Amino acid sequence: IIIGGLWLTVLILRRPVRPMKVNQEKPIDDQAQLAERRKKFPYYLLDPRRRRPLIPDGQNPMFSKELQTGILSKGSLAVRLTYGFTIFSFFVSLTTIPSFAYNRYAGQMVLWSLFLETLLILVVTPALVATALAKEWEWNNIDSLRCTLLSPRTITTGKFNAALRTLSLLTGGALLGNFGLVILAYDSLYFWAGAVVGLSFMVLCITYTLAVTYWATAQCRHSLSGLLAGYSAAIVSVAIAPQLVMLLWSFITGDFSFSRQESLLLYFASPLYAFYGIVEAVGRQPVLVLLGYGTASLLTFGGISAGLLSWTHRRFAAFLDTERV
Length: 325
Description:
Layout: H1 2-14, H2 31-38, H3 61-69, H4 75-94, H5 97-103, H6 106-130, H7 134-138, H8 142-146, H9 152-176, H10 179-185, H11 189-216, H12 223-253, H13 260-266, H14 271-281, H15 287-322
Helix pairs in contact: 3-9, 4-6, 4-9, 6-9, 6-11, 6-12, 6-14, 9-11, 9-15, 11-12, 11-14, 11-15, 14-15
């Protein structure tokens, strides 16, 4: 083995040296060509000399900019992130198999797995948008953005959609990580119904948390204040608010022992608690009751998320007007 390794090393060292590839592309210095390039949509935002493919017509330029400067700036990093979360989700899904062996509720098994994976995704969700607008102030890009034709709504929408696309990697990894559960219960209709419901609530929880964080950080000018405001708003709205609602309900009714039906109604204070209520009620409540409850919860928090995002557009636009020099 040693002699073979030395022989292979000698062969590698005797190979002729390959010339390094040199970028022969010339910088764009011609003023006429630069002037013509500035006329193309969307005026290439800040740097017309940037030697990258032009942003296609009709695409939000802020969306492309966020993807280039965010986690998707390196494709290999995005692939590693997806693979890593897929493997991690697989081990998370294994923890739900004993409950399936005990009660044989295939729908509850996949719901529990997706619920635990949703908790993991929500930990990093606020960080993706908490500094999205604040870093534009720190990098002194606000005045440059004002010189473009981008409206405040276009800027905020592009950043929000870029964060959603980044989180889609984690969501896809979570779904792929449950392939072990598919082998156990692929022939169960309740399993596939639970998978659809779990995925719907996973997307709802992520979107709602992003919307709340985005709204709270719309007028932050520093990354630190954006992170503090974003995580504080997300924790309060997702975790603390339902507890406050339940405590208030206790004082109003004078009864601190909640029945399952009353608890389900109080879970409308948070999509995460709504998700947990669905998981706990599988096998204990009629299917039609769960279907109606889940649909109402999805519509409620979906509407709240859309309202918060629209409010964020107006807050950021008002902040730009007040800070205009």
